[in-house]
Amino acid sequence: MDREKMLSYILDSYPYPIVFVDCEHIIRYMNKRAEYHYYQERGYRELIGKSLFDCHQNPKSEEMIKSCVEKLKKHANEVFLMVNGRNERIYIVPVRDDLGDLIGYFERFEMNLQK
């Protein structure tokens, strides 16, 4: 099995959406859970290659995401974003190259056990 296929299977087994976005805020990858969430539940189509801000059209959301990415560029490990309507905490996680430079980011979800 080639490495790309193996990594795709690993990411598809994760029970939360994974949407990888490059530093220009262009969506480059979605796992199966993300495809289901955005295409089936939210009604979007063909998001790969489009701006993240086509989904987050609220100026406040765009400002919050850009602010988080600026923190990541300054070598933050991950940045807490919010608790969503499903009571999941959402973090923005950096993806870095071998030199430690930011090449993109994704949202990480986890159950919020506190009420």
UniProtKB/TrEMBL annotation:
Domain of life of the source: Bacteria
Stored InterPro entries: PAS-like_dom_sf
Protein name: PAS domain-containing protein
